[in-house]
Request: fold
Amino acid sequence: MTKEKKKKEKIDRSQFLSLAWLGAGLALIGETLGALGWFIQPINDGGFGGIIKAGTLEEFPPGSITLVKEGRFFLSRLDDGSFLALWQRCTHLGCSVPWEEDEDQFHCPCHGSLFDKLGEVAGGPAPRPMDYFRVFIQEGEVFVDTEESFERKAFDPSQTTQA
Ligand code: FES
Reply:
């Protein structure tokens, strides 16, 4: 191998390494921007933070409590047929509150807060009723707007939506 050829090969290796580093750097920047974009994009694709189609009116008999997982809320259909959407988040320290069918109430597993079907505090350290979301009905379908939650001091029928 001639000296000149060795020199050219060395330059090629050096260029190759530079290009490899450049490529790796660009890939890292691209992945970082992609991940950042995913985190900061507005949530309006029908998941939590947007409008959730919960189901048809017939799917929620009066007196039922239904967890709508993708919206992180319970849809409580009251005995008069109206709807109340309760955020699953405990108003004490934010744990997810399950509905306990055999207790007929929400029972937070973290510190024992209890809430009734209307989301009102029935016991434990929770400082206020469960927050609620606005419900609206269109052409027999029940929708819940999870973009904005509402705090309250007590249940009031104005928090419900008539079918
Ligand atoms: S977070 Fe629910 S009782 Fe504390």
Helices lie at 3-40. The pocket of FE2/S2 (inorganic) cluster is lined by residues 90, 92-95, 108, 110-113, 124-126 (CB under 6 Å). The chain has one helix and ten strands. The first helix runs from residue 3 to 40.
